[in-house]
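User: Let's play a game. I give you a shape written as tokens, and you guess the letters that built it. Ready? Here's round one.
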């Protein structure tokens, strides 16, 4: 059933993945095109708004009557009567220009501090423009230049809540002697642009930025005045930029606004850009899934009628679950069900065999525990007694004998102490040194002991008394308790710790090597009865499982090397004794 379902599901899933792979570039191109079209419309709106603002300032600059009035009213000293007579004309002129456009504010400042506006002077004093940092720049402009001031807080108090920001441009009008006779400041509420962005493309985040990347208007008022986060990623304004934002792919677009040096930027989620196409594909996939589900249900119904004999096998499995391992499935035949019954019976046979094997291993484990417990008889008595003997001998001046007893005490403490089953390599090496020292005292023939321990393994932990049995085996069997060399080497790589004990003794013959291998594997026909190597082998196997390896290499009359490989991580169940 599983194979059938896989065969049914795999082809459409693979087809979907292949389709997604080959259509990905087309979808990305179409998504970028759709986003570009929306940005083009927004560009038209913003460009039209700026052109309207430029037209208003041009209308004042190139209207002869208006120019004459501004020059006359701007003379020094200010004539109050003339200001009253011609001031009404200027006010009507400004109101007429902005009549067709909402929320546009126009100010005309004259050199003698006279001014005209289309808004109430109680809302804002236009003379405050002179204190703005951008105002001195106007005197350096020509008649045809425009100062694109940018975005700033709304200075019309009654509108500051509804539209917190304004976008302003400014111009200077100069006479033939290049002296300014009027300053034009024109502002529009940025909310006009914001509302258009939100209504026309609600899923597309648009923003108007200046040449430095500062946001002048956009879908989020909180970002106005800040720098557009992805301005530096735009390398080619004509090409869309795909980038990841919060683990989601976005399309970044950029377009220039004519005359101003400003830009329109757009950031839209790739998923939103292809939302309609994805909905169609999702509905298609859903329909396929529903029909596939109906077919699978029908298939289950047919298979269930064919596989009724499996109910019998299930009853047998239930009895096994209750602990009755002697039960067997009485199913015959050469078909799949018959073979399944035979395999089930074989599985029960193997389970019984494994239980017997586990029982034997537990028995061996308890035997090892008893062997090691024998070494723990009254340890404090031995330590205290040895320390007392050592102090008496040392007080009599026999320093050498006192050191020997000290080594014996430390070796016994390491052997008997079971507080920590794992010890650092440097402590295990100290145990080996004390052991070799004692062996040299015991026998007339001195052992020449060498060690090569890498500095980066000293703090690695290994099971207690891992190396000492190998040293003892090399001395007793390899060197026959005579003079010779024993070399201890410890190093590691990225994953494993390696320990090598090598002697230059008599070596091991082929037959004895075979018996030794059988002994380590606990085979019954082994001729070797020693427990040293077998004890270490069993302990390390219980600790590390199959990750532990022991290799024995020997040449007759040349020597023997025992090398073990211990994993640095991933220990199995820790063996406690």
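Assistant: Ready! My guess for every position:
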């Amino acid at each position: 059933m599983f194979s059938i379902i896989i065969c049914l599901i795999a082809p459409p899933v693979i087809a979907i993945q292949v389709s997604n792979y080959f259509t990905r570039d087309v979808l990305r191109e179409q998504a970028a095109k759709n986003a570009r079209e929306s940005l083009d419309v927004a560009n038209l709106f913003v460009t039209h708004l700026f052109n309207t603002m430029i037209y208003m300032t041009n209308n004042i600059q190139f209207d002869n009557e208006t120019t004459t009035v501004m020059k006359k009213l701007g003379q020094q000293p200010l004539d109050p009567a003339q200001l009253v007579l011609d001031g009404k004309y200027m006010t009507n002129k400004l109101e007429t220009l902005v009549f067709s456009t909402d929320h546009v504010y126009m100010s005309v400042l004259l050199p003698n501090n006279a001014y005209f506006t289309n808004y109430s002077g109680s809302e804002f004093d236009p003379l405050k423009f002179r204190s703005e940092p951008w105002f001195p720049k106007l005197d350096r402009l020509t008649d045809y230049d425009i100062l694109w001031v940018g975005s700033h807080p709304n200075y019309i108090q009654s509108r500051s809540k509804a539209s917190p920001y304004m976008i302003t441009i400014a111009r200077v009008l100069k006479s033939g002697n290049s002296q300014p006779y009027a300053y034009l400041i024109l502002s529009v509420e940025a909310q006009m642009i914001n509302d258009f962005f939100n209504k026309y493309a609600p899923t597309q985040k648009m923003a108007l930025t200046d040449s430095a990347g500062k946001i002048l208007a956009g879908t989020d008022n909180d970002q106005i005045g800040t720098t557009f986060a992805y301005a530096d990623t735009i390398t080619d304004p004509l090409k869309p930029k795909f980038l990841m934002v919060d683990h989601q792919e976005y399309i970044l677009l950029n377009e220039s606004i004519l005359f101003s040096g400003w830009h329109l930027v757009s950031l839209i989620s790739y998923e939103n850009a292809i939302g309609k196409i994805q909905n169609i594909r999702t509905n298609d996939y859903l329909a396929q899934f529903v029909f596939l589900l109906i077919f699978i249900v029908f298939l289950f119904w047919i298979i269930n009628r064919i596989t009724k004999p499996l109910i019998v096998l299930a009853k047998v499995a239930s009895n096994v679950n209750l602990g009755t391992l002697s039960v067997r499935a009485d199913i015959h035949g050469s078909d799949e069900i018959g073979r399944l019954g035979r395999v089930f019976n074989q599985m029960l046979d193997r389970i019984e065999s494994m239980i017997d094997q586990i029982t034997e291993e537990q028995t061996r484990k308890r035997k090892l525990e008893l062997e090691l417990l024998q070494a723990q008889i009254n340890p404090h008595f031995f330590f205290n007694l040895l320390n007392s003997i050592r102090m008496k001998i040392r007080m009599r001046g026999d320093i050498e004998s006192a050191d020997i007893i000290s080594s014996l005490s430390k070796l016994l403490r390491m052997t008997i102490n079971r507080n920590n089953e794992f010890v650092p390599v440097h402590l295990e090496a100290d145990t080996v040194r004390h052991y070799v020292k004692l062996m040299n005292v015991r026998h007339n023939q001195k052992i020449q002991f060498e060690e090569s321990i890498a500095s980066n393994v000293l703090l690695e932990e290994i099971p207690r008394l891992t190396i000492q049995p190998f040293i003892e085996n090399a001395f007793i069997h390899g060197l026959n308790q005579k003079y010779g060399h024993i070399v201890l080497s410890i190093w590691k790589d990225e994953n494993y710790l390696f320990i090598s004990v090598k002697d230059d003794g008599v070596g091991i013959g082929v037959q004895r090597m075979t018996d030794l291998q059988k002994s380590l594997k606990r085979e019954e026909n082994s001729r070797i009865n020693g427990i040293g190597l077998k004890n270490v082998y069993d302990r390390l196997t219980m600790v590390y499982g199959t990750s532990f390896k022991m290799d024995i290499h020997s040449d007759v009359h040349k020597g023997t090397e025992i090398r073990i490989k211990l994993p640095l991580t991933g220990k199995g169940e820790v063996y406690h004794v």
